[in-house]
Design brief:
Length: 426
């Protein structure tokens, strides 16, 4: 596997693109360096002991607007990771055309090893330690891996307490705009926004490639927030979702001629909720035909002879070890960084169309912008209004990346970087 750091990998890719298209290397170098990286200690009493966690926030660029990006809770969170992810955020907000910059942060911890009370204390302490650099016009965090609206609600509550103590004169609704992905005062439609945006892109791509949804098979890796909504909305749009998986493995169904039978996604979801994993959920929705239903590993899912692969779980899953076995002709990167640069190069050369993460999953940050605006303007948007706006933003972003790829005779990843850099380095 490609062992380079997340940040270095992206930096080198972008500098290469800069050279190829004669972009100013000085301006690029300046943009690539994060504006500020903050590392804080978070000491917490766990029983009789005090344990110190490390928290991070990388504010990458605010050229296009306030810093914007998620906060993750994971043992692997470190300075390099947040730097790399914050750079991707700067590009993503530019591609989807919302007036935000890029940021990312998190705390290095294993949330499964902590109680809810302890997680709340850690979340509040993190906000106390980074309070000075946050604000609706400064830096606007959101949920990410292992964080959710409940955690964000603790954080915004702590932030507002500190802002009031500090004598900040902003209205309450404006202060709410300091975080997005909230439970209270959040946005209707935010939960499905990333999957929804990905399916808008899928439909636009299908039109360009002349793919008829009813004859197009999809395999979706990851059945969490992004993967589930993507699978559900894609099947509602008429695509054949024939494989889904979670961390324990995946499921497919085939008839006696080995032809894939599309899965009934709402029933599969119900089954997953009941059992806790997808194991055996091909039985959902009728008499369980154990001859047709089959459990597969995540590696097997990636090698299925489907038309489109949707990696929607982890980074680096398509890499130099398995790239030769990929049979899909299209990959839509719904996770962040699921195809390594080497695999991207190899597959693109073979003619595989890869929709890059900074376009495919940008529906999440686009919805965050609508939530931020709703708070600033003290309005409450209805879900159908939110999804209509989101659709428009996604179609526009897709068109601009697609047209750039055609005019520059390049792939969609390079085109999306060019679209972003044109706005950032103007
Ligand atoms: P999630 O935690 O809700 O779901 C993750 C899913 O991946 C779960 O079904 C889990 O079982 C599965 N999974 C874990 N390990 C796996 C493995 N080894 N093989 C296959 N599946 C595995 O997370 P999410 O919010 O759906 O995010 C998924 C990806 O999308 C991440 O890369 C995230 O950064 C990216 N993303 C999410 C959003 C968002 O709005 N949630 C926005 C942009 C990008």
């Amino acid at each position: 596997m490609d062992q380079q750091s997340v940040y270095q990998k992206s930096r080198e890719e972008i500098l290469e693109i800069g050279k190829k298209y004669n972009l100013s290397q000085n301006a690029l170098e300046e943009f690539l360096e994060p504006d500020r990286i903050v590392e804080v200690k978070i000491p917490i009493k766990l029983g009789s002991e005090t344990v110190t966690f490390r928290g991070y926030r990388s504010q990458h660029s605010n050229i296009l607007g306030p810093y914007k990006g998620g906060l993750r809770f994971h043992p692997k969170v470190n300075e390099d990771e947040v730097m790399g992810l914050s750079l991707w955020m700067s590009l993503k907000t530019a591609v989807v055309g919302v007036p935000f910059g890029g940021a990312k942060g998190g705390i290095s911890l294993d949330p499964k090893a902590l109680s809810e009370k302890q997680l709340e204390e850690i979340s509040r302490e993190y906000v106390r330690r980074v309070y000075d650099i946050l604000g609706p016009q400064k830096d606007v965090p959101a949920p990410d891996v292992n964080t959710n609206p409940k955690i964000i609600d603790w954080m915004i509550d702590e932030y507002i307490k500190l802002a009031r103590k500090d004598g900040i004169k902003k209205s309450l609704n404006e202060l709410y705009a300091t975080f997005t992905g909230k439970g209270k005062n959040g946005l209707s439609g935010r939960t499905e926004a990333t999957g929804f945006g990905g399916v808008v892109v899928l439909k636009e791509l299908a039109k360009k490639l002349n793919l008829d949804p009813k004859n197009t098979t999809l395999a979706v890796m990851g059945f969490g927030n992004v993967g589930y909504y993507f699978a559900d909305l894609a099947s509602k749009a008429g695509f054949k979702v024939v494989a889904v998986s979670d961390s324990k493995g995946g499921i497919i169904k085939r008839d006696s001629k080995k032809t894939f039978i599309p899965l009934d996604i709402p029933l599969v979801y119900e089954c997953k909720m009941e059992k806790g994993s997808l194991n055996g959920c091909y039985c959902a929705g009728g008499v369980c035909d154990t001859r047709g239903g089959q459990l597969i590993t995540n590696e097997e899912l990636l090698m299925l002879p489907v038309d489109i692969l949707i990696p929607a779980a982890l980074e680096d899953v398509i890499n130099e070890n398995n790239m030769q076995n990929i049979k899909a002709k299209v990959i839509v990167e719904m996770a962040n960084g699921p195809v390594t640069p080497k695999a991207h190069h190899y597959l693109s050369e073979k003619g595989v169309v890869i929709v890059p993460d900074i376009l495919a999953n940008s529906g999440g940050v686009a919805a965050s912008f609508i939530e931020w605006e709703q708070n600033i303007q003290n309005k409450t948007y209805k879900k159908d209004v939110v999804l209509k706006r989101l659709e428009k933003l996604m179609v526009k972003a897709f068109e601009s990346v697609w047209n750039t790829a055609k005019s520059k005779k390049t792939n969609l990843k390079e085109a999306s970087y060019l679209v972003a850099l044109k706005k950032i380095l103007k």
